[in-house]
Amino acid sequence: MEPKVKRTKSPEQALSSLMNLCARGEKCSADALRLMKGWGVGDADAARVLQRLVAERFIDDSRYASAFVREKINLSGWGVYKIAAALRKKGIDSAIIADAIAENGNVDMLERLTQLLERKVKTTKAKSPADLRAKLFRYAASQGYDFSTAKRCVECIVKSDEEW
Known about the structure:
By secondary structure, the chain is an all-alpha fold. It is built from nine helices and no strands.
């Protein structure tokens, strides 16, 4: 399926537009290529524009990955698995993903997940403690947390909240 061309831009216009966009916020190389494809820039021209953006440090995938990991851990409360999957979907190299997670993953995931689950418990309707555990496990998994962290958090919360 071909992307819909919104407005055709020349390679020079695409470069200028991407420089403006990158100056306002982090973009990865896949974002730039997707935008240029939408603008109708040819593949060879897009590669040259991207090469120039990388050379002038407007685009840096490792910087993008670090910012992405920081944002998703601190603001969105995502777990490591969900963050890594989102970065892989963006086309970021797995070595860059591992470095970004190692660099920014010093947040206590157990504490972060406990906070998320305590908030979730208040809005979750469950018929029994087992039902509540199952719903909290599914929520933790959807947020990208590993099984052992989810198990510890869910057990602490359900034990402290068994007033059925």
